[in-house]
Amino acid sequence: MSIENFRAETRAWLSENCPESMRDRPVHFEDAFDIYNTDDARAWRDACAAKGWTAPLWPKEYGGAQMSADEYRVFQEEMAAIKALPPETGMGLAMIGPTLLEFGTEAQKQEHLPKIATGQVRWCQGYSEPGSGSDLASLQTKAVLEGDQFIINGQKIWTSGANNADWMFALVRTDPNASKHDGISFVLLDMHQPGVSVKPIPLISGSSPFCETFFDNAIALRSNLVGELNKGWTVGKRLLQYERSASPAPRRKKAVKSLNPYAQIAKQYLGETGGKVSDADAREKITQQVMLEKSMQLTVQRVSAETKSGRAPGATTSIFKLVGSTIAKESSALKSELRGLAGVGWEGDTFSEDELDATRGWLRDRAVTIYGGTNEVQMNIIAKRVLGLPD
Ligand SMILES: Cc1cc2nc3c(=O)[nH]c(=O)nc-3n(C[C@H](O)[C@H](O)[C@H](O)COP(=O)(O)OP(=O)(O)OC[C@H]3O[C@@H](n4cnc5c(N)ncnc54)[C@H](O)[C@@H]3O)c2cc1C
User: Ligand 1 in contact with 374 (CB < 6 A)?
Assistant: First the structure.
């Protein structure tokens, strides 16, 4: 099929099948589960999954559509044109799926990938522990191989979505005598078993998007060891690159003056003179933010065009994570700042819904420079792996 025909067919199909409620709305990690837990969301996901469009680049035998780079670009453009939400999200598609495609056995791919593509199984990430965050390789959760299964004991923390997850990918210590980075293995385990318990951590916002996860003789089958025994650090690091390349960047699509969200807010709260934001300091901040966002978009486009895969490879993902998450955090902070006192409203009738959302967005987006490795950790990786500076 020619690419023009592909575009025409994709456009027609999307317009007919994407429900209105799955268009043009923000999704954050705190509310993603609720947004995707509706009849509309399920219908949208199932229709796309039947065409392999939940995982457009994956091979067809694992539930993907095996699109070419050109088809994928067109697909993304047509999705963006109607502001369609992705038909499926989560750590399955963004993190463990691509990792299994790279490191999984044939049996693991066949068992897990189609269930991810059709949204039957939700995944969570068992990396961080109470004493191991940035220094992840110091993790202590222990897994002992007995026959054809690992017996796991220990604790994970900040496990996003563990309370709604069916499976976990986890880093566990399988050789306590080896040096820190050796002796770690990467395993997949079923969350619905007696040895796993999950305790949601309530946030000040009232929601509990992440949890503590406890293992008390939990079991992972040996057949669900990904990569080699004691060599899980390599697999775990690669997964982090997928996580980082999926991290948020500000969602502005076009630098159309009249749609500049910062200018709109500033005009409303600080006033306008002759069509311009009145406050010179605010104008300066807005210009800088928009220039940064535009530069980031252009750099991402250039790197995707160069790699043809739609993903930034290797350690350079740390650059995107560092810059993209910083810009996203500053975007929310600027939107709150431009609102003045109305930008710090928490509750009550004196604030509009937009103002209350803005405050929550500002606080929530403070997390983007922490999860998936903090900014300082990204700078360490860039120094060592990209710039080749000594330790
Ligand atoms: C919203 C959110 C969701 C998350 N979801 C998950 C999840 O699903 N699964 C999971 O496993 N984890 C998850 N995490 C945990 C996240 O990966 C850790 O918070 C992160 O790796 C930092 O670890 P820490 O919190 O222990 O901070 P620490 O490692 O204690 O760091 C504290 C501070 O010290 C700095 N620092 C530490 N080491 C260095 C260094 N060598 N050089 C310079 N500065 C340094 C850090 O940058 C940071 O500012 C999530 C976190 C957040 C905020």
Answer: yes
3-state secondary structure at position 240: helix
Residue 115: closest CA among 123, 106, 125 = 123
Find the 388 Cα to ligand 1 centroid distance in Å.
24
Question: Mean per-residue pLDDT for 233-259?
Answer: 72
Q: What is the pLDDT of residues 362-382, one digit of tens each?
A: 988 898 999 999 999 999 999
Ligand 1 contacts CB of residue 10 (under 6 A): no
Question: To test the ligand 1 pocket, which listed residue (31, 89, 128) has its Cβ within 8 A of the most ligand atoms?
Answer: 128
Tell the residue nearest (CA) to atom 30 of ligand 1. Answer: 133
Nearest to 90 by CA among 43, 132, 27, 26: 27
Predicted TM-score of the model (pTM): 0.91
Question: What's the one-letter identity of residue 159?
Answer: T
pLDDT of 208 higher than 70: yes
Contacts of 126 (CB under 8 A, 6+ apart): 141, 156, 159, 168, 169, 170, 171, 213
In the beta sheet, which residues pair with residue 144? Answer: 151
Per-domain residue ranges for the chain? Answer: 3-89, 123-230, 247-386
> Nearest residue CA, atom 26 of ligand 1?
133
Burial of 87 (C-beta count, 10 Å sphere; 0-12/13-18/19+) = buried
Q: Are 198 and 163 in contact (CB under 8 A)?
A: yes
Ligand 1 touching residue 141 (CB < 6 A): no
CATH superfamily placement of domain 247-386: Butyryl-CoA Dehydrogenase, subunit A, domain 3 (1.20.140.10)
Taking the C-alpha atoms of residue 360 and residue 162, their distance in angstroms, rounded to an integer, is 22
Q: What is the Å distance from ligand 1's center to 135 Cα? A: 8
**Beta strand ranges found along the chain (DSSP E):** 123-126, 142-146, 149-160, 167-173, 184-190, 196-201, 210-221, 225-226, 272-273, 276-277
User: What is the CATH number that goes with domain 123-230?
Assistant: 2.40.110.10
